[in-house]
Task: structure prediction
Amino acid sequence: MNPQLHKTWPLIAAIWLLAALVPVVAPAATNAGREFYIAFMPNLGAQTHYLQIAATGTDAGVSLQVPGGVPQAYSLSADGHTRVELLPYTMNPSSDSISRSAVRLTSTSAVVVTAVNQASFSVDGALALPTTVWGTDYRILSAAQRNGQPSQFIVVASQDQTLVTVTPSASTGARVENVPYTITLNQGETYLLQTDDDGETLAGSEIRGDKPVGVFSGNSCAYVPTNAAYCSHLFEQLVPDSAAGSRFFVAPIGSREGSQLTIYALEEIALTTSPPIPFPSSLTRGSVTTIDVSAHVYAQIVANGRMIVTQSPQIPDGGSSFTTILPTVENFQDRQVLVPIGGGQFRNFARLTIPAADAANCTVNGGTMPSQGFPIGTSGYVSIEFDLGQVPAVVACTQPFGSLVYGLGLGEIQATYGYPGGMLVREAGAPVANAGVDISGEERSALTLDGTGSHDPAGTPLTFEWNQVSPAEPRIVLDLANPARPRFVGPEVAAPTNFLFSLVVTNSAGVASEPDFVNVTINDIGLPPPVAGCATNIVDIVGLRTVLSGTMTSRQTIALLDATLRAAQNALANDRKATARGTLALFLVEVVVASSLDPRIAGRIPIQDANALTCGAANVITRIAPR
Result:
């Protein structure tokens, strides 16, 4: 239910005073915050610009300053939301120009903000990021200019005398490809750059500020995927390079006919995909690589360095589509307020990427999750999609998850839109944990976790903290002699079982990363059931030696059996399974021989004792994996 809108000067004055008294900081490094600057870019035809604002569990007093307009004030209840059309709104007049076109929003408590630029057939929205998570380095995401609709980006400053260095990936106007230049922005000012000619793109251009800046990029009206017959506005607020990740998940968006995926490599990386999708196995720094995938691809993309991945769904009959940034695992969070474009113009959906073991624990507005989802390969994650309706929804899980919000136009709105639903944005300079690719192995086999892909932007040494997230039992004991690559032995399982581990790394300054996760699948090797009533591990067999005491078995025979059994036990303790199997087989033979000896010569083992020893040895031998 929308809150009542108040536009009285006493309330405006009170909110401005409160905003001045309360520091403008976000409670966490997420997309929810208390200060935002939003800048729009040219769209195709007449445009309407508006913001959607949602509270995050606490009453909020919101103040909005539109360039050229009077301040506006809004009060939101703890679960309230509102939609505000920006009138008037004046954008940058031309490419390569500086203007004061940024909208500033402040709030007394954390809110989620989405920005929408809508024309009749060209619409897109962006998840706005608060100034507390802005960075200093960005890589532009965009499509090529076609039919005169330029590739473009806009930079906004929140502080005076912000120096911004731009290195364009294409020549445009007076600017030369790959030649950096510097501009100066004051608080609330924006800088717009657009391409000149068809076929050109600013994708991959680099932005660097001496103070944190906000960057929006996209296209006036882009043809995405590249075979689209119609265009649509592309508009995203970018995460800084420091918040880029190394592990992404791909799943269909709605009932589309496939997708176009693009990877922006921020450094030289080796790439793996599971199940395989046709990306190259290695990418160079600064490269922009695009492929098409079918509608049925559910896959994981993992790199040993930082990258940004976008997805553009195919629309039937060449219709206009959208491009959205895919949240990386490092961006996942366990509670998100998802804000669709309301007003009844779109049918809105949410697509979630959730750890499979946690899906049953997730709620939507306090109720059960409306879908079971589809597995994303063997990653241990599932993709869940549901109808979002026209108002914000609160999704909560016990483990971090990723989200997208998208919509399909209704009636005369023949357009689509899409953006991340919520994001955890690490502080610039924080280390990045990389728990490695998912692994699998057999019970009782030796396995190794791999966190060597973790890194610290400052290059300082890292400490590693691994934790078993699920299941609660059985617990896996890690050998942390090498904490970056801990070893362990797969526990016994009755059926294939997925174990989820988290990794957090901390640099020498004490700054910790966000957790990264890796799945370990332990497979039951299908051994025959053990002989009932007999020992099933070597410790119990050692204990059975006492049954020989007091029998006619000679000390020499007992000593021989002891030596063989201890040798097998030592081999197992040192993970020399083949040696252990062979030595236990020798022990079994020695027991059989000793049980048949003439007691007058060596002392025969009584039959019942020999049976206990031989069936125990046979049980253990069949349960040592042949390594």
